[in-house]
Amino acid sequence: MAATAHSPNVALLVAAVAAGGMASTAGRLASTTLAVTSTPSNRAGATSMTLAWQFLGSALAPVTLLPLYDSSAATAFAAAALGAVGAAVLLSVAIGLRGRLTGSAATPTSR
Fold it and tell me: What are the backbone angles phi and psi of residue 94, rounded to the nearest 5°?
């Protein structure tokens, strides 16, 4: 997302926004998959908690990023990118830990 603040042309801006959208969707998919597979006895509850936290994050993002955007657009986009990178790191760690704990790759299992 930080690339969107410094896009010299429209095509690069569209590509940066598309990449951000794909990354966001992949993050939501990964966290939902982790929730569903982590609690086989209560998949609905785990999914509900995951979606609730995702909704809270989406609701808080404008409140936290708009004051930054008001002072500097580049700072706001950099902060959003930093948050996305942090989330990706946390998901990667969670997937790696889950794989080590179960002794397999972090893939959904049918039960």
Answer: -65, -40
Residue with tokens 């598309």: 18
pLDDT in tens, 59-71: 988 898 899 888 8
Whether residue 20 contacts residue 84, with contact meaning beta carbons closer than 8 Å, is answered with: yes
pTM above 0.85, yes or no: no
Q: 43-71 vs 73-102: helix axis angle to the nearest 10?
A: 160
Residue type, 90: L
Biggest CA–CA distance in the chain, Å, is 51
Q: Which two tokens stand for residue 71?
A: 């002072």
Q: How far apart are CA 37 and CA 50, in angstroms?
A: 12
